[in-house]
Every structure is written in C-alpha cells, then in structure tokens.
Amino acid sequence: MKLGVCYYPEHWPETWWADDARRMGEMGLSHVRIGEFAWSRIEPEPGRLEWDWLDRALEVLGDAGLKVILGTPTATPPKWLVDSMPEMIALDAGGHPRGFGSRRHYCFSHAGYAGECDRIVTQLAERYGQHPAIVAWQTDNEYGCHDTAVSYSLAARDGFREWLRRKHGTIAALNQAWGNVFWSMEYRDFAEIELPNLTVTQANPAHELDFRRFSSHQVAEFNRRQVAILRRHSPGRDVVHNFMGFFTQFDHHAVGDDLDVVSWDSYPLGFLEQFWFSPEEKRRYQRQGHPDIAAFHHDLYRGCQREGRWWVMEQQPGPVNWARYNPAPLPGMVRLWTLEAMAHGAELVSYFRWRQAPFAQEQMHAGLLRPDSVDDQGAHEARTVAAEIAALPDPGPPPRRVALVFDYTAAWVTDILPQGQGFSALRVAFEYYSLLRRLGLDIDIVRPGTDIAGYALVVVPCQPICSADFVASLTGLSAPVVFGARAGSKTADFAIPAELPPGPLQSLLPLKVVRVESLRGQPCEWLEQVETGLDEAGPGIFRHGQLYYVSRYPIDPQIEQVIASVAANAGLDCIALPEGLRLRRTGNLVFAFNYGTESVDLPPGALGKFVLGEPRLPPAGVAVGVAR
Amino acid sequence: MKLGVCYYPEHWPETWWADDARRMGEMGLSHVRIGEFAWSRIEPEPGRLEWDWLDRALEVLGDAGLKVILGTPTATPPKWLVDSMPEMIALDAGGHPRGFGSRRHYCFSHAGYAGECDRIVTQLAERYGQHPAIVAWQTDNEYGCHDTAVSYSLAARDGFREWLRRKHGTIAALNQAWGNVFWSMEYRDFAEIELPNLTVTQANPAHELDFRRFSSHQVAEFNRRQVAILRRHSPGRDVVHNFMGFFTQFDHHAVGDDLDVVSWDSYPLGFLEQFWFSPEEKRRYQRQGHPDIAAFHHDLYRGCQREGRWWVMEQQPGPVNWARYNPAPLPGMVRLWTLEAMAHGAELVSYFRWRQAPFAQEQMHAGLLRPDSVDDQGAHEARTVAAEIAALPDPGPPPRRVALVFDYTAAWVTDILPQGQGFSALRVAFEYYSLLRRLGLDIDIVRPGTDIAGYALVVVPCQPICSADFVASLTGLSAPVVFGARAGSKTADFAIPAELPPGPLQSLLPLKVVRVESLRGQPCEWLEQVETGLDEAGPGIFRHGQLYYVSRYPIDPQIEQVIASVAANAGLDCIALPEGLRLRRTGNLVFAFNYGTESVDLPPGALGKFVLGEPRLPPAGVAVGVAR
Amino acid sequence: MKLGVCYYPEHWPETWWADDARRMGEMGLSHVRIGEFAWSRIEPEPGRLEWDWLDRALEVLGDAGLKVILGTPTATPPKWLVDSMPEMIALDAGGHPRGFGSRRHYCFSHAGYAGECDRIVTQLAERYGQHPAIVAWQTDNEYGCHDTAVSYSLAARDGFREWLRRKHGTIAALNQAWGNVFWSMEYRDFAEIELPNLTVTQANPAHELDFRRFSSHQVAEFNRRQVAILRRHSPGRDVVHNFMGFFTQFDHHAVGDDLDVVSWDSYPLGFLEQFWFSPEEKRRYQRQGHPDIAAFHHDLYRGCQREGRWWVMEQQPGPVNWARYNPAPLPGMVRLWTLEAMAHGAELVSYFRWRQAPFAQEQMHAGLLRPDSVDDQGAHEARTVAAEIAALPDPGPPPRRVALVFDYTAAWVTDILPQGQGFSALRVAFEYYSLLRRLGLDIDIVRPGTDIAGYALVVVPCQPICSADFVASLTGLSAPVVFGARAGSKTADFAIPAELPPGPLQSLLPLKVVRVESLRGQPCEWLEQVETGLDEAGPGIFRHGQLYYVSRYPIDPQIEQVIASVAANAGLDCIALPEGLRLRRTGNLVFAFNYGTESVDLPPGALGKFVLGEPRLPPAGVAVGVAR
Ligand SMILES: [Zn+2]
Ligand SMILES: [Zn+2]
Ligand SMILES: [Zn+2]
After folding, report:
1. Which of residues 388-447 of A touch B (CB under 8 A)?
2. What CATH number has the domain bearing residue C517?
3. Does residue B133 form part of some domain?
4. In angstroms, how far is CA A217 from the centroid of its own chain?
5. Residue C184 has what DSSP assignment?
6. Are A328 and C515 an interchain contact pair (Cβ–Cβ within 8 Å)?
C-alpha cells in the first residue's frame, strides 16, 4: 500500500515547494494530490489561463519522484464565472440561493455550468494528460458535500421534468405509478410537475423518490462528462473521485461504475461526533472514533468499484475544524487508521493535508505539518507507518466471508418515509455491520444483485425495494441469508406490494408482514406483526431453511445471539471480541486494532505468527500476524 | 349510534366497489363518506366534468343500502386550477409559498379561488343534491390542517385591511384600540397596515389578535358559502365539517353555528405523541392514548353545535403514518373508542379508512382492511362493536352536571402572549377537564355565554377575555364557579383592564391580581399576587361564596383537593378513579373504560346493572351498566 | 447618585402628567427620560411636526423640578416614512425583510434613512437644544436590539464594498489578507464581493470578521451623526446612549468614545434566563439574577467611556415580559440593584418604566406604578433607596485593583470560529470576572491598550487578536498578568500567526501552542498542547515570572486556586465569599450584597464601620461600611 498527501502549492510561497516535496519523499509518501480548488489561479479572468505556476509545481513534485493526482477544479468556480451565469447557483428546499463565498456553489443541472466544466476539464486534460508526473485524476471534490447533491433551481425543475418524461413515457403512466389520484395530485402534462419542496405537508413519497433518483442521476452524469474527457486526453491514468462518510445523497455505485478507483475521505472523529452515536459512545471514543466507522466505509467503498480498487484520498491527521467538538486523535491513531485501510485492501492512503493552512475556513484543520512547517503528530506517525508497511508481507486479496447488502435507494426510502423517528437504512446497515464485526468477522458490503456465490453468510439489513434480479440472486443459495425488517416492503414506485411485505421475497420466505408499529426510542423501536407458519429462531425472528427474517429493530442481544449462531453454523469463526478490539483478515494476514482506551489481550491464536506488534495491545495499538 | 367508514372509490378498480359495499354492510356499517379529495377525477381538465364514475359509485353504494356523506373537494384543487391563478397559494409567516404537491394549497382569502369553490360545489350539489343515497355533505376537509388557517398572502393582507376597516371604522379608532402610540406604530390609513409577520421583534399583540380573528373569520366565511350552496340545492341533508384534535387556529363555535352536525377526526395515539404530554405518559399510554384525549374532544365538539349533534368522522382504526412514532392500538381499543363516542352522545362513528391505500402519502395509515383486502384488526373490532351497539339500550340524553367553559380566543391570547413558556389556554382547559374526569364526573365543554343554568358546577380554566355577557351569565348562579388563573386579564382589545385582572369579574369576585410571575418548568409555573380580603380555600385559592379563584398553575394536589370538595359539596358524586379508568353517564346508562395496561376492578356499584362487560375490566375493556 | 425614571407622556392622558411628575419628585427621583419612541406623535405626517404636546410635557416635567433626558426617536420610524423608502428595511441572513410592526426596522447603511434621521434630530435639537429642563440627550434606543446591528440589504452590501476598498486599498491586498486563494474565493474587483450570508457552507472567517467590523462601524457612524447634531444645537448637555446586556454585535468602545456618558439597561432576571447559565443557576437565582450579571456590566460599561461616566438608563423594577420565564424580583432586589450601581460608580439609575403600560408589546412589563397608578413594589423600594442614598457618604472614586481586558473583536472571533460548541469570548470573560468577584475583588473591565499602570493584577480572559500596542502595554509591568486560552491565536486578518499562538505574546511568554482540541461539554472543554520550557503553576498553567498562561477552559478549582494565590501574592485582599455574597469597594466605602436565598454573616471586619445594614445580611440585603 502506498501513502500520499494532499497539497496546495498555490497556498505557499513557490520557494517552499521543493523542500516540501523532498520532505514528503523522506517521510515515505509517494503520492500527492493537488489542484482541486485552484480554478481562480488557473483562470484568474475569463479565458486567461495561467498555466505557468502549475507547470512549475508539477515539475518540482515530479522531480522529487512524487506521483501526482490532479484534481479538476469544478467544486469551486470563480466569482467571475458565477456572475456570468447567476442561475447556476443551487436553491435550497426553502427556495433560497446557495451562493458564492465558500464552495460547491453550483447546481448539477445547469447546462451553462456543465459547459464551463467541460471546457476547463478539457483544457486541463489537454495540457497535462500526458504529463509524466501525473498518475491519476480526481474529478471535482466530495460531490454532495454540504447537502449539495439536491437543488431546487429552475434548471433542476426542467431537468426533472425531462427525466420523468424519459422514465415514465406518458403522464398517465406517471400518475398511475405515483398514485396521484390520492389528494387530486394528478398532472395533465410533465410541464405541470414541480419539485417536491415548498409543499403544504409532505409531498408524495413516490414524487420524492423519483426526485432523489433524478438528483443522483445528475451527479453521475456530471461526473461521467469529466471522466469521458479525462479518458480521452489522458489514457492510462486512473480516474477517481473522493466520496464522504455516512453520505447517501446520490448512488455511489452508479458513480463508482464510471471510475477506475473509488476513494473516500476518512475523518473518524468528526463522523463520530456528527452522527447518531450515543453521548456515551461519543465520550468513550472521542479520540479514536467508533471502532467500525472507518472499516464500514472501507468495505462499503471497496464494493463501489467493480474491481474493488479503492483509496483513502483524505485521512484525518489530527484535530479537524468542522465538528461540534474537535478532539485530537489519541497518539497512534493516525498509524492505526492507516494500517486498517491496508487491512481492508486500500491501494493508497493520502493524508489531508500536508501543512495546516493558517488562513480561511479550514485554518483549524490539522495537517501533517504545523502551520510553522514543523512536523506535527501526524507526520511522525506517517513516517513510522510508512516503514512498517514497507516491512509487512503483501496483504493478498480480501476474503469472501460475509456479504452485507446495501444500496442507496434504501436510504432514500427511509429518509422519505421513516415511519418512526430515527429510522435510517444507513444506520441499520451500520449496526448490523458492527454486530458482525464484534464477532470478529470479515465483511464485504455489496450492492443488491452482486454475485454472492461463495460467501458463507449473507445479511440484508434493510432493503425495502427488492428487485426481481435481487430475488433471483438469492434463490438457491446454500449460504444462510438474514433479512432485517422492512425488506421487500416497497415496490420500485414506492408503494406497498400487492402481496404485502416482504413482497417478492415471499417467493423465498413464506411470511407476510401485516402490520408495523414504531415506538418511542432513539432510534425508534420497530415491530412487525407477521403472518406465517414458520418457526421462530428467536422472538420475532423467523426461519425458513437457511433464510431468516428479523422482524424487529433495533438489534438486541437476542438478535445478536441468533446471528452469531447462524454464522457459527455456517462455518464462520466467531469470537466475542472485547470492547474496542477489531480483527481483519486479508490474504494470509490477520490484523488486530485496539480502539479502546485500555490495553487488551488478543484472543490466543487469533493472529498466528506476529509480524507486527504483540499479543497485548495498548490503546491505539495494532498487531499483524500471518495465519498458520 | 351508527357506524360508517371513509371510502375512496377512485382509489380502487371499479370491479371491487360492489364487494366493498357489501362487506361494509355485513360489518355493520351504515354510512360511507366519499369524494372529498376527488377534484382531479371530477374535473380532470378545466370545465370538463367527469360525473360518470361518481354516478356509478353512488349507485353501487346506495344499492348496498349505504347512506352516503359526500365531501366537497375543495381541500385539493387540481394543478391546472392552481396554475391558472398562482396567487391563490397561501404564504407562510416567512413569506414562502405553500404550493401544490400535497393538499390544502390555498389561501382562504383569495377571491378567485373562492369563486372556483362556489362553482364546483354548485355543480356537485346540483347533480347530487337530491340523490337518494346522499344523507349528508361534508364541506372541504379538516380546515386548517398543516397550519393552513393562517396565510400571509397579498389576498389575506387586502382582506385584513378591509376587515379592520369594517371592525374599527376609523384608523384613529384602530390606533387607539391597539395602543399603536407604543413604538410609533400608528397608521394614517388602513392601507398602511401590514400583516403581523416579518417584523423585527414580536408584533403588537392586539395586531396579532385581530389577525387571528380575521383569519378565523375567513375560514368561517369560506365554509358558510359552501353551506349556503348545499342548503339551497340539497335541502334536508345534514351539512357537516370534520374538525381536528387539539386545534384552535379558528373559532370552531363560529363554524359550528353554520353546520347541522359537527364532526371530528379522532386519532388518540397520534395526538398523544404530538402534543404536550410527558415522556412517561407517552410511554404508558402509547397504545391507548391518554384516557382524556378522545373524551375531551367529544365534549368540546358536542358544544360546538347548537343542538349538540356530533359525529366522529374519522376514527383511528390502527397505526397511523403522521406522528413521530406510530404504535398500533392495543387490541380492543378501536372498540373502546367507538363505545366511548356513544357514551358521549355521538350519532355516528366513521372509521378512517376502509382499506389501507398502498400508495402516496398515507400508505402507512391503517384501514379496516389491509391493502390486500383482508380484514385488519379494526374490521374485527368494528364488527364486534356494531353488534354490541345494536344490543345496548338507547343511551338517552347527556347529563348536565359540570360545565367547563372554553373559547378559541383564549387560546389565541395565550399563544400570542404566553408570558411563560408552555402556557396554553387549551392545555389548561384539558388539564382541568382531566382533573374532573379523574373524579368520575361528566362534563360539558361550553362556550362563554352559554346558558349554564342547571349545572351543578362550573369551571372556567382560562378565560382572559371576559365579555359583559359572560359575566352576566355567571351572575346569580347557585352553582359554584371555579376560575383558573388569567381570568379576566385582558380586554377585548388585548389590553390589561383598567381595574386590573380579573377585570369585569371583580363585580363578582372582590379581588385584584396586582402582579404575575412565571417560573421555569414545563409548562411554566404561574403565580399571581392577589389583593383581596377573601379567605383562602387553599394556598392561592380564594373563595367568595360559591365563587373560587385559583391564582396558580399548574394544577397540583392542593388544587385538586379543593375542587374535589367543591364538587362534592355541590352534590356531585366524586370517585377517585384508579389510573386509566374513566366513567361516563348518559341517559340512564353508565359506561366504564379501562385505558390502563392492567386489569382493574370497577368501584362497587358504580355501574348499576351490567348490560355489557363485567366488574373486572381488562386493558382496553368496556363495561356498561344501567343506573338503578 | 441620582435616581430617574423612563416616562412616556404620549401614553397617558395629559391630565395625568402633572400628578405623575409630582409623584416622581416625592419618590426621590430627579431625572426623567422621555421621547425615544414618539416619532409618530412628533411627525404624524411627512413634514407636519406636532411640537405642542411635547412642549407641554417638557413644561410640566420641568415645572416639577425634574431634569429631562430627551431621546431621539430614530429607533421607530413611522409607517409613512418606511413606505416612502421601503429599501431602508434591513434583511436578515436568510434574505428576508425585517419590516414594520414593532421597532428597529431600519438598516444602518441606508443613506435615505440616515438623511431622515439627520433631519428629525436636527429639528428636535433646534427646538429643545436650549430648553432649561433638558440635561441630556439619548441617541436612538438600544442599538442592535433584536439582532439589528447586522443587515444583509443592498445598502449594506454597497457600503461594505466601499468600506473594504478604503480598508484594503487594492483587491489583491484583500485577497491576500483574507486568504482567498483557499477554495478559489479570489475577487477581481471590490464590486464582486458579496455579504457573507447565503453561502453553501461557512464563509471565509476573514470575510465574516471584516463584515462584523463594517457593521459595527456603521452603528458607530449612525450614532456619531446624531451626536454631532446634538452637540451643535445643544451644547453643555450630556449625550448618552443606552447599551444592552451580554450584547457584542458592535464595538461599544467605539460608540462610547463619542458619548459623554455611557448607559445600559439592566434586567438581571431576564438576562439570567436568556443566557448560558445552567438550569440549576437559573433556578437558584431566578428572583435575584446571577450575582455577577449587573456588576459585570457596570464594570464593562464604566470602561466604555473615557472618563468612566456611566448610568443605568433602564433598571428592572419588577417582572419583565420578554424572557422565556418572567419571575418577580425578590422583595428588596430593586433596592439592592440600585445600591450596587452606586457601588460601581453610577451617576444615575433610571427605572424602566414609570407606569406599566396596559397595552401593546410590553404590557406585561412592570413599572414603578401598576397600570392602575397604584405604587408597585418597585416604587416602594425606589422611595426607600432614594432616602438611603441621600444619607450615605459620598462614594468616592473607584479603586484600581484588578484590570480585566475585554474587547468586542474577541467576541466576534469566537462567534465566527468557536471550534468547540459553546465557546464564547464574552462568556469566558464573564467567568473569569465571576471567579475574581467570588474572591471579593474589585475589577475594572478595560479595553486592550488601556493604560494599566497601577493595577495589582491584570487578567486577559480571551484575547485572540493581540495588537502590537496591546503587547507593548503589557511589557515591563510589575503586576502579574494572567492570560486565558486562545490569547494571541489570530492575526488581525483572522489567520494563525506565523509563529503560532500566542503570536506576538511570545515576546513576553516563551511558549508555543502547537495544537488545540475541544471536547464535548456545555461549554466545550478546551485543551491546548503547549511547547515550552516553562514550569507549570498548575496543570496546564504556565508561569514566566509574573506572567501566567492558562491553556485550558473551563475554569476549574485548580485554575481558581492558582489565580487566588497570584492575587494574594500581588497584595490583593482575597476572601472566599459565601455563595451569593458579593463585596464592592469605592472610595472608602465597602458595600456588601446578598444575592443568596439564605441570610449570611459578613466576613468579620470586611466592612469596617457600618453606615447601612448589619453584619447578618438577609436575602436581598445590603450593607455599607466605611473602611477604617
Ligand atoms: Zn426564506
Ligand atoms: Zn466535505
Ligand atoms: Zn389532517
């Protein structure tokens, strides 16, 4: 696995560049990402392109032996461009413009802006497509960050109407699909359809779901245009985009299908603070992050690229600036996170960023270097881990043990219609994932319809819409399959299936969900009333051969126990791991990570022969063994 | 009492209608409400009226012996209508449009829309006014739902100016009435007056109160136009509207005065979750609703129709979709709620809805039938209770024992100027009501000025504005009258009375409230400093003959004890009921309802001779006795 | 010290004026503030000025021997004026107008409105500038109240661009100063710059800070124009403005520099409820206010006028109307607050208001009189304290013992970039102040750069931007100086200093803050990692000679102990005061105030010879001694 760093030559005096590049190399970094926010420096005035500085930056970095990932600068169009087409600005759900002054100030549906992006990406790719230092391109930056995947602009409205026309064909078909007879919501023409915001009460969920699909489609289209240009002008280089954590506003599988490599930006401490974790978990793991946050995303994004190629494009190197509270990682965590990415199959971990910028929005975001250029804690750990990685055996291919099914549409369905406060398909998926990880298992997160032959266990945490292909993929499996609540509860048009939930899964599982209720809790409790002749494998858990249906949520010890025994019966090696300890196998290596605040003894024999670390793991400790 | 159901023939294949109608009859239902959201099916294009399907639906239902309540479709104008007059859309307090895409997307003050409503209601009434199956008309649906009674549109502004001109006559009179000299808020002309939104800090409460009165007046006017058309074209049929729970945005007495029957939509579980109840109450009663929610509204709405004629137009039959959490009713609760409506004098209970719709916004709202047409729990209970009702003796007229005074202006006053967070006249009224019900008493909720001769006890929980008529109605009563805090604290123009609170009540009660304070709490604690020579009947409770003034809030055991002894001295039969148990007498019947989660023994002798149930009531149990 | 009252003759029948004036005098009041909301009465139509009533009011008040403070009415322009220039309305951060209907409905940057203010102030000053009854002028009222110091109007945008041009000179300089290279935020011209609202995510903090500075500058300019007019037409009278509590939206030092007297509006109970105090403190002190709220502002605003001249322009006399909860002051608190102002050097305490207005927004705000003109509790206490003040010896000049440094830019910096939720420079300043007061110390709150020679102790709670002047003012001091966290952490352009925090303070204190972290808490915990060779005077507290750096927050017992010992070593007389007790020395008088709910014994000898009160202080009790 390689290490890299995100670097902004335009932020620093040119006289510093060569020394920065030299220090990167000495630290063990081989890759450097640059350029993704530099449009105002590349094109300071309309049509006046300033390549010189970038030519020189690439030269300096290349001369130092660094491999460059060059970003397209489309996440930050300059002010002159925005002023030339003010309608390119996205509108929020309240109808307010989301204007210039930070970043991502554009609507994915605006044709004029798309044209400008084509132009600048083409110009960049023409100039640097064959540059020897460049090994990869990053398209834009963090699509959707700051809730920008969705826009309620006129451009989005017009695009949505056209998308609907293509999808539904006739307005009668759309009215039928959405159930618009309800509340007289029927349209006579696609031109009558509005975006599903600014309604008196909630819009039709079918309307909302199609708008989510459309918005996701626009992101994928936007990306695809850049990919096509880059492929044309820069063949042989990887095209990559950097995804985010716990983010589902577009279909990452669809975008990933157009990429050579999927990458993501890993900020375990900020994600712990900003998401659904309990106050107690936020306290306990404040300097480590929850032990499953990074791993979950590693496994999720590995599944977003057809060949499983993935990177960490931005790795948290110290405190960040954007969470409510911003602790410093426990010493050793930067090393731990790096090795954990390796254990999950990353090709590259790139730290964000080289030197802390003393100015502007992210001035409190740590880098590997302090603002005064002294090595910060992250630099020390990067240097250490670079040496360790070099010394470790090749990790080999990831195992195929447990497949956990997740897709983005599921998240949209539960966002749109949670039915009980706090119900979120993403959260459910994470919690099932975490349960499996506490048993010491290795997981692939796969999209529905993936070929899952060879897995010992399949878990489908929350899959409201089950396509015929998905049902077919599960038919005749020998491995056990565990379905969580709400499986098959909706048709593709966001309706209850005629045969009731779990809809088409009834061909596999002879049961019918005849009523659901949600009770107070954080998240809500979810209880389904099931009609079936099947036996219960536990309270509310129905079994049909190798298929299990868990009709309740949240996951409690009884559910855990059933799943543990299903896994054990499937031949998986389950270990009840101590709090904060996690294992990960890849090839014949076994990694152990201690996210806890206390030292912990590894389960005897779990790691085989130690090639890194020792059987007693300190906090933030890592050990690696070679399986016997 | 009759039973009915809400039905949407336009949601189902026409081939299903006859069987649906037959099953309704077999279930014991005699009434069916239809049509209130069907505008886009009645008039799919401007001026093209499609009556055929509705003709056939009425025929099928009528042939099955069902009595039809036909709704006017004005709560859901079709898209083409909205597009023809976009200014008909209401604006929220922030100035944002509340557009098409759900329901209730209209401003009550828009003349163009009012004209369209006149037209469609006339067309409907002309066609079906004499139809033999039709026994009643419902105007629109749930006026004000989703906060729609108030709009900040230009039409509302112009209407408000005109309404003010008619009310105040001259701008000088308005300036004087509102106290506009304060902060130089004086106007020179009615045309200078804006709506009380988008102000820098709170608007003049007198301005806000007049706007609330105006907005309420617009709702009543809107309804009155429909009533007049329906009366003209369909004489002899009842005209009814369906009100909501815990909703005070317009004066329901004023609207009720134009109706033959008042009805309301009873969703006890959703109301428990969405309103002010404590987390512990929300847990304890999650599957039953708080034991006083349904009864409070029954007694409130019975008082909103001059002759006391009232229905439940929509009765919750299972889990709903619109609360934060949506539990399923305890088995038996649908039956209990139905019998409780009977105990409070309902003529009809109509379940919402026949079959759960698998599509659109309410797809998670249960019906009597499941989406697959199988009887759901509500159907079983409806069938049972239909038979029980048929077997019960006639309930006879409601008793006149305790009168609880409430009006909508009181709610507006405390909304506008709570003075302590959480103070709400509606909540205070509910809490006094609940106190009296825990003593086993029967209550009429009456508007101020109602003839209250013959009541053994009168309670006035929170009546800030006391008119001369109201004071006169209390003068010379022999029954005790209990006033809660804030009585008589405001003039009709939202000012402190010259003689200080309780203003005109000082002619009855020699005391003066010279200072109030509100302290932290949920709701706030409210303490009044009173100047009086009267004795205290308890801490802060002053007595003058048969008149009591409770200068504190919330209700605590000391207040409860005083009121219990006042009631007992007035000859009322007070019983300290166990948790969750409630009694209700009507005619010579006595009903008992167990809202608790445990079985409970009825107080010996409380029910006389049992005609339904037994002395030990299980959860959700009902017993009925004939008083000896 | 003198006493006064706020009076609104326009609210009352003219026949009441003379008696009101007589009663004021009898009560011991010598001053009366009038006129600040009377524009619609002074100029009921454009250009038609109605002076008669005001002539008569001044005559009546003057005849009764009262000294008048006349307010300019610019906080409440009449409707006709707003309608003549609708663009004068401020816009909120969401772009919504903040319109007519309450008060403060204007944008500080609107040239047209500024012209109208010039005109009306000139007309007022011409007419009454030489009036014998008038001793002072109040400009406008509570600048910034209801978040009005900042506006996002077009006028503000244009003003901001011009202000930036004057400050930065060239757009290149601005781009450099703000670090606009980050995220391609570079501008080509000042005309491209927008206000920092409606951005996708947070705007550049440098952009925000300049906008805060500009907005503050506009307030100061607005005030300065009025001051100039008043000085020209009414020489010899004091010009004053009334500031608010816990309010930092503009630089009060800058505005104070243009005033003869600074005044503030003291509402201890409302401020306790509305600000950051814990629920327990809100309960304990609900009827007294936190013991340091009033004193903090007295000491803060005394420092906002170059000669230390200050008044309380509005003193809470009973319950108010504007907090979430509005308790009544404990009997005696109005007297206590009055004497406490005296102890801190006030020249005048003026109660708000004479008689409770029974109408409009503040009808629940107590006055000295009840709405029925009877003396309320405040009147009794005012009468008592007037006599006591007359009997007390002259208080003499305030001591110079402890200087606590605070400036408004610090509050803007932490508002803009708290980095940990709840971090606020104002709150930090208050908490250090409170710590010092619990030790019985006397404090001056001074702006950075003030001459602090002669103080025994200097405390700098939170000063992110340290100018060269400020650093120079601390150089060579013999007194100990204690710096709180974040000192010197930003440059004037909102960047991290090249040498890292504490930036220029490193010339005094050899330490470097190399990392900060914020942890969950309310407020956040703040921990700095420091590189230094210095010894710790306590955990995380570094000492260099007489200079101390406290690298942690919040203040805990260890920090308190260090500061107490620093103060004691500096020769200050520290006493650990019991809960709720506070002392204040001025001249040779020593005041003691009991904010607690229990009686308390004064520390023996603390007061010298008693001239008021006794050694055992009841709740709300005050004692005064003459130091021996
Ligand atoms: Zn808005
Ligand atoms: Zn981001
Ligand atoms: Zn509704």
Report:
1. 417, 419-421
2. 3.40.50.880
3. yes
4. 17
5. G
6. yes
Contact call for residues A440 and A575 (beta carbons, < 8 A): yes
In a domain, B282, yes or no: yes
Q: How many distinct structural domains can be found in chain C?
A: 4
CATH of the domain at A106: 3.20.20.80
Flag whether residue C588 sits within 8 Å of chain B, measured between CB atoms: no
CATH number (domain holding residue A608): 2.60.40.1180
Residue C516, helix vs strand vs coil: strand
| pLDDT tens readout for residues A462-515 | 999 999 999 999 999 999 999 999 999 999 999 999 999 999 999 999 999 999
Which ligand does the CA of A365 lie closest to?
Answer: 2
Helix, strand or coil, per DSSP, at residue A520: coil
Which amino acid, B507? Answer: S
> End of a domain among A210, A232, A258?
A258
- When CB atoms are compared, the residue of C99, C100, C282 closest to B520 is C282
Other Cβ atoms less than 10 A from the Cβ of B142: the count is 20
Statement to judge: residues A526 and A615 lie in one domain = no
Whether residues A78 and A168 share a domain: the answer is yes
Q: Which backbone phi and psi does C20 adopt, to 5 degrees? A: -55, -45
Mutate to test the interface with C, among B161, B175, B183, B524 (most CBs of C within 10 A): B183
What's the CA dihedral at B181, B185, B188, B192 to 10 degrees? -160
Number of CB atoms found within 10 A of residue A383's CB: 18
Q: Which two tokens mark B344?
A: 């409070």
As a whole number of Å, the CA-based R_g of chain B is 25
Helix (H) or strand (E) holding B340: helix B333-343
- CA dihedral angle for residue A429, residue A431, residue A433, residue A435, rounded to 10 degrees: -150
| Residues of chain C predicted below pLDDT 50 | none
What separation in Å is there between the alpha carbon of B82 and the centre of ligand 1? Answer: 22
User: How buried is residue C191: exposed, middle or buried, by Cβ count under 10 Å (0-12/13-18/19+)?
Assistant: exposed
- Are residues C428 and C515 both part of a single domain? yes
Q: What is the mean pLDDT of residues A347-366?
A: 98
**In the predicted structure, residue B216 carries a pLDDT above the cut 80:** yes
Inside any domain, residue A348: no
Does residue C324 form part of some domain?
yes
What is the Cα–Cα distance from C73 to C248, expressed in whole angstroms? 23
Residues A612, A521, single domain; the answer is no
Tokens of A63: 């001369």
Chain-centre distance for alpha carbon A232: 27
State residue B627's pLDDT score.
84
pLDDT digits (tens, 9 = 90+) for C252-310: 999 999 999 999 999 999 999 999 999 999 999 999 999 999 999 999 999 999 999 99
A528 and A617 share one domain: no
Q: Which domain holds residue B176?
A: 154-207
Place of tokens 């509705």: B54
Q: What is the pLDDT of residues B80-139, one digit of tens each?
A: 999 999 999 999 999 999 999 999 999 999 999 999 999 999 999 999 999 999 999 999
Using CB atoms, pick whichever of A202, A420, A498 lies closest to residue B326: A420
Residue A347 annotated as catalytic:
no
**Together in a domain, B511 and B549:** yes
**Is the separation of the CB atoms in B219 and B250 below 8 Å?**
yes
d(CA B3, CA B12) in angstroms, rounded, equals 22
What's the whole-number mean pLDDT along residues B596-610? Answer: 95
B566's tokens: 């006042």
B94 CA to middle of ligand 1, Å? Answer: 6
Question: Which one of C391, C418, C448 terminates a domain?
Answer: C391
The whole-chain average pLDDT of chain A stands at 97
Q: Separation of A97 CA from ligand 1 center, angstroms?
A: 10
Q: Does A283 touch chain C (CB under 8 A)?
A: yes
Q: Are residues B379 and B422 in the same domain?
A: no
Residues A594 and A553 in one domain: no
Distance set, CA C53 to CA A516, B408, C129 (Å)? 72, 41, 17
